[in-house]
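REQUEST FORM: STRUCTURE PREDICTION
Request ID: SP-0412
Submitted by: Lab K.M.
Chain count: 1
Length (residues): 294
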Amino acid sequence: NGIVSMLDAPIFVGGEMVGVVCNEHIGPPRTWKLWEELVAGTLADFVAQVFAVSERIAARRELDAYRTDLERLVEERTARLRETEAGLRKLFEAAPISLVLSKRTDAVVVMANQRAAEMFEVPLDEVVGQHAPDYWVDPSDRARLGANVAKDGWVQGQEARLKTRSGREFWAEIAAQLVTFEGQPSLLLGIHDVSGQKLAEESLRQHGETLETLFAAAPMPLVLTGLDDGIVRFCNRRAADLFDTKIPLVVGKRAPEFYVNPDDRNSFIERLRTTGRVDSYEAQLQTVSGRPFW
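STATUS: Completed
RESULT:
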C-alpha cells in the first residue's frame, strides 16, 4: 500500500486498551514531530471518551430498563399483596369463629376479624397492634401452645383461659397454625368460647357428686342405667353387695347381664317407656357369680 511510516496512539477505557488510532504516511520515510504525536494522543483520548460515553449511555439504558422492570414488578407484587390481604380479610370476616393473626417475632396482632374483636372487647380498628400475650390469663398456657406449634406446625383443640380487655376471663378452645404473612412467620389462631360448655361440665360433675352422695345414703340398693344401652352409670354399695361384687366392677357393665331371663328386662323397659314409671316389678336377677335371686 506504499505505507512507509506509522504513528499509533492506544485507546484506553477503564484502564484497558480497547483500540488504536493509526496514523499512516505514504512517501519517503518520515520522523513524526512532537506536535503530531500530541495530536495522535489527543485523537485517541477523544475516541476513548466517545467509547466511555457510549458505554455509560448503554449502561444507563440498561439501568433504566431494569428500573422500569423493577418498578413494574414492585407494582404487581404490591397489587397482589393488596389482593391477598383483601382476600384474607374476606376469609377472616366469613369465618364462623374468632380468628387472630399475630407475628411470631413479637406477638403483635396484624389482623383479626369482627368476632375476635367482640370476643376480646376491643374495637376492630384498634385490634391491629395489640400484644397477644396480654389476653392470656396464664402465660404458661401460651408457652405450651407455642412449643406445640413449633414442634408440629399446628395445634388443635387446646383449652386455655383467656381474658378480654376489661379483664373478664373465659375458657376457650384454640386451634393454631404456623403461616407466613407478608414474608414474616406468623401464628394464626382460631378461638372458640367454650365457657358455656365448661359450666355445663362443672354442673354435671356437681350433679354427679350429689347423685353419688344420695346413692350412698340410700337405705336400699340403687342402680342407674342408660335406658337405651343398658350401661350401668351409678350404683351404691348396697346394690354392689346384692350382686356380690364391688361398685367399680358394676359401673360400666350392661344391666341385662344381671337378669336371668333377658326378656324380663325387655318387658320392664317397654312398660317404663309407656308409663314413665314402674312399681313392684318382679324379676329373677343373678349375681356376678351366677347365683339367682328374686
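NOTES: The two ends are 141 Å apart (CA to CA).
Reviewed by: T.R.
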